[in-house]
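Exercise 7. Predict the joint structure of the components listed below.
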Amino acid sequence: QVQLVESGGGVVQPGRSLRLSCAASAFNFDTYTIHWVRQAPGQGLQWVATVSYDGSQKRYTDSVKGRFSISRDNFRRTLYLQLSSLGIEDTALYFCARGGQGRNSRGPLDLWGPGTMVTVS
Amino acid sequence: DIQLTQSPPFLSASVGDRVTITCRASQHISSSLAWYQQKPGKAPKLLIYDASTLQSGVPSRFSGSGSGTEFTLTISSLQPEDFASYSCQQLNTYPPTFGGGTKVDIK
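Solution:
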């Protein structure tokens, strides 16, 4: 089954770190741009970070630059998001989502995982 | 960053109604706009991309139009399963920002 499944969320104290994972199944993971998108309780969607299909290009929203790090392991078909110096404002449901294929980093997000909740408290 | 403004933020409608949601971009984004549907506690689902292209498997009652800075999502005849939140996203320029969302509920 073509899917993405996130894990690694939980309750963490302010200032601490957490690593999220996103496991891909049944598609050519190593040919797609993958995004992290988050949604704070009761709020809209916020793009967080993107990594290119080969891991060579990484981009972040301003509010997480220097604190979050996106990476991928194409052999393990897994995406990661390292969250550091967490603040209450980082409390959200974190989704990974599949974007464009190959060098197209601007494709729509056509496959989403169910999300993993991060609570900073 | 490009700002996307959706209107209305909330919409009450009945089954069978024609519903239109607007998304306005703060800068020209060509046709690089996607629409997503999201139900409570679930992941978003891609409905429309490139402003007007229907994603595979999405019912034909959904349609999108527009280019430049103004875009619309139309549901031609609202069905019970369409009561949800809808968000636009621009993919023209990084960061790929989202609109604030429109919640469609039952009148």
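Discussion. The beta strands of chain B are 4-7, 10-13, 19-25, 33-38, 45-49, 53-54, 62-67, 70-75, 85-90, 102-106.
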